[in-house]
TrEMBL record:
Protein name as it appears in the record: Undecaprenyl-diphosphatase
Organism listed in the record: Pelagirhabdus alkalitolerans
Swiss-Prot/TrEMBL keywords: Antibiotic resistance, Cell membrane, Cell shape, Cell wall biogenesis/degradation, Hydrolase, Membrane, Peptidoglycan synthesis, Transmembrane, Transmembrane helix
Reaction equations catalysed: di-trans,octa-cis-undecaprenyl diphosphate + H2O = di-trans,octa-cis-undecaprenyl phosphate + phosphate + H(+)
Transmembrane segments: 47-66, 92-111, 123-140, 192-212, 224-242, 254-271
GO molecular function term, any single one: undecaprenyl-diphosphatase activity
Function: Catalyzes the dephosphorylation of undecaprenyl diphosphate (UPP). Confers resistance to bacitracin.
Alphabetical list of InterPro entries matching this protein: UppP
Source organism superkingdom: Bacteria
Pfam families found in the cross-reference section: BacA
Length: 272
């Protein structure tokens, strides 16, 4: 009986890892889907330590995919900062904008994350926020934008950063909110996508570091094997999901995500 229970628990966490990992990069809200899945199947995660761990797995996948951009920004930005090489000024400015855009979500998350989680942590509320996400994805479905990486402004960084802070609400997609804000500001799809996921790196890394105490807590130590399998599953799922999403963005087919958010949002709002 114990073996059966252990296998059941392992499969449950692998499933949660896949759901979080696959939905993290695409604009349909990973946190919202975890709420819906738990409610729909009568499952329950122990605490926030799971989300923190699988988000870190997603971070590793993002780092792998954007490794060339990260290397370019780091090397050229450092040349401008330490050697006054003007060829790296645009990369240094881009990094500065990423730092500035990180601040709103970091501050609001530290002050109000528990309040936000407790207020919106129901399938009914997630249904509403997913419908809102779908509306804004529908709004930008045909936007192309002209601004490239070198054309970004401080105002753009602040607005995208504020949009990311709104995504602390389950059901409001982080990638969706930042991409919507960027494209409404006239930023090209490819640049909006890159800025969104490079912006994910400091936020996810900061959350992981600040929440290490939860991962080391006695109450979750017996879950290290399910957590490990969930971690691996989430990382792999995020990698392939993000690659797929990049192709969808390149083809300008965000309308499909808008339709999905409307459908799953209505389902959660009416049925669950």
């Amino acid at each position: 009986m114990t073996i059966i229970n252990d296998i059941s628990l392992l499969l449950q966490y692998i499933f949660f890892g896949f759901v979080q990992g696959f939905t993290e990069p695409i604009p349909i809200s990973s946190s919202g889907h975890l709420v819906i899945v738990q409610d729909l199947f009568g499952l329950k995660l122990e605490n926030l330590s799971f989300e923190i761990l699988v988000n870190f797995a997603s971070l590793i996948a993002v780092l792998i995919i954007y490794r060339h951009d990260i290397m370019r920004l780091t090397l050229n930005g450092a040349k401008f900062l330490f050697k006054n090489d003007t060829n790296g000024k645009s990369e240094f400015t881009f990094i500065l904008y990423l730092i500035i855009a990180t601040i709103p979500a970091g501050v609001i998350g530290l002050l109000y994350e528990d309040v936000i989680a407790s207020t919106f942590n129901s399938a009914h509320m997630v249904g509403i926020t997913l419908i809102i996400t779908g509306f804004f994805l529908f709004l930008i479905r045909n936007l192309k934008g002209q601004k490239k990486e070198n054309d970004l402004s401080l105002k753009d960084a602040i607005i995208v950063g504020l949009a990311q802070s709104v995504a602390l609400i389950p059901g409001i997609s982080r990638s969706g909110a930042t991409i919507v804000a960027a494209m409404l500001l006239g930023i090209k799809q490819k640049t909006a996508l890159r800025f969104s996921f490079l912006l994910y790196i400091p936020v996810s890394l900061g959350t992981f570091i600040l929440s290490m105490d939860q991962l080391l807590d006695e109450s979750v130590r017996y879950l290290w094997i399910p957590y490990l399998f969930a971690f691996i599953t989430a990382g792999i799922a995020t990698y392939f999901s993000l690659r797929w999403f990049m192709n969808i963005m390149a083809r300008g087919q965000l309308i499909y995500f808008a339709i999905y958010c409307f459908a799953i949002g209505l389902f959660a709002f009416i049925i669950l």
